[in-house]
Input
Amino acid sequence: MLKWGTFGVVFLRLVSIHNCEEGLVLAKPIYDQNSRILLNEGTVLSLGFIHRLKNKNIHYVYVQSEITHDVEINDNIPTHLRFEAATKLNEVIADLAEGKTGKNKAIGRVRLIRDLNNVFDKIMKEMQTSKHLLNLLSHMQFSLDELFEHSVNVSLYSVSIGKHLGLKESELQILGLGALFHDIGKLKETKEWRNHPEVGFEMLRKESEFHLLIAHCAYQHHENVDGSGFPRGIRGSEIHLFAKIISVAEAFDHLTAHKSMLPHEAMEIIVGRCFTRYDSKVVDSFKNAVAIYPIGVTVVLNTGETGVVIAYNKKYPQRPIVRIFKDSQGNKLPIKEFYEINLMESLNIMIVKCDAIIERDMMKSK
Output
């Protein structure tokens, strides 16, 4: 255990809205679904503000914190861009699902798709210039429709994996859009869930604004490398790399966002399915491209101690370095008594709770 003893600048940490306390100061703005600022940076959180944020289904906030005074906390993609992407995706998917034809309708759809492409171009530029791992737990501050939130998350994971695999920018663009639309078939399927890849393929392949590979991403994302997937039961090299990437990204988001597993638990399941469901090279790239416990997130250890992740281990992302600010009895420590635990050096200690996952559980139980 390493003692921490240098103080000065106040930095930030990620806190579940249900763990917010009166008097905390916002370190980043909070936006609504229309990308408008609800509360600005520097706002002191009152009980009234906290209550209103809960009512608006805000998941978490970034607050100023002396705990991370010497730690750089990165959010690769500005919040407003995430929201804008989800909003544009919503518009395009609604238009595609409506399925209306005609010249005016086609022109309108082209405009919507191009607007989405423009937003995604901005996201791509942010991701291409960032030297940091993708901060997976801070995609959305509030609850969106599950399909849109899932689609944006899977797209960001997929592009991060593709970037680590060395894909070209033009390939990343197709991969990202393919991931955004991978589940679109769910909007039109009626009886059989397993039909949605084929339904999505048929919807997307007819759109002239989309590269045909985008349709194939929807078609193949449930195929498994051992041939046990669907709809065609293809295997290995028969499955396009983009679909293999989306398969891993989708599984991870499903396990963490919908099954409420801790990130390392989800990762263990995915690693255990290498060579059957998932391509091992893709899984390795995911582990190296995404910070499953991002710097700044609050966690609880099996010892009862509470801390903030201040650094990650690239080879073993499930075992980061945690700065402890509450002891095993839940007592807050004085600043000079904060200490660090490197989970790679203390293998009997592990993360048992994560603020962002706790938040998802509480939102579901409402």
Summary: The chain has two domains: 2-73+295-364, 79-291. The domain at 79-291 is CATH 1.10.3210.10 (Hypothetical protein af1432). Residues 103-129 form the longest helix (27 residues).
